[in-house]
Amino acid sequence: MKFQKTPLILLFSALVLGGFVYFYELKKEPPPTEAQSESKPVFAFKEEDVQAFTIQTSKQTFSFEKIPATIPANQKGVANTAFWQMTAPEKTTADAGSVAFLLNLMATSRSDRTLPTPVDRKSEFGLDQPVATIEVKLTNQQTHRLLLGKPNFNRSFLYALVDPPAKPTQDLSVLLVPIEFQNAVDRPLAEWKQIQEKPKASPFPTPTASPTPTASPTSLPTPESSPSPTISPSPN
Fold this sequence. Notes:
- The chain contains 5 helices and 11 strands.
- It has helices at 5-28, 34-37, 96-108, 180-185, 189-192; strands at residues 40-41, 50-57, 61-68, 82-88, 92-93, 110-111, 114-117, 132-138, 143-151, 157-162, 172-178.
């Protein structure tokens, strides 16, 4: 039995072509870790580098400044810890936890997606009227700004702009930042202020001073009046 050469050649060519396409597509597919390797920090500074910052929302503007602790000269070797002070809308000691939560987010957050966006389309991401604008000033006098827009479709990220130009003329680089930024800036005034500790009440009741008894004058018996003697007339 003789086999025709033409079908065999066509079959061999199809197998070779199919194998080439398979290996080409397999090689082109990105490795699973590629998306993670593209993740980049939102900012390059550290939390301790921040000297002052401002949060501007549609409701209010908050300003904060780091105040170095004053250590007496005779206490060398003591850690020079600083504290945060609110300077607007009130001047008071700031809540350390609320400040640390925000600054840690700015210093450690990463973004794995950048969306090139025309300037006239930034309203689609809520960036024409940002939910909040955060501006930080570093110890080296550099400043950085973060504009927070609306959440994405599944509310897992916020659209944001990092250090946008004052008057952008080219496409904007819109980032996706963690949704936790929304909780970090959407706080009432009371949560930005340090809670003043009230003096603890004593577990023992305060003794009540008993009134001092007033000495009443002793009633002395009134001497009974003796009858006056009757003088009889003397006889003449």
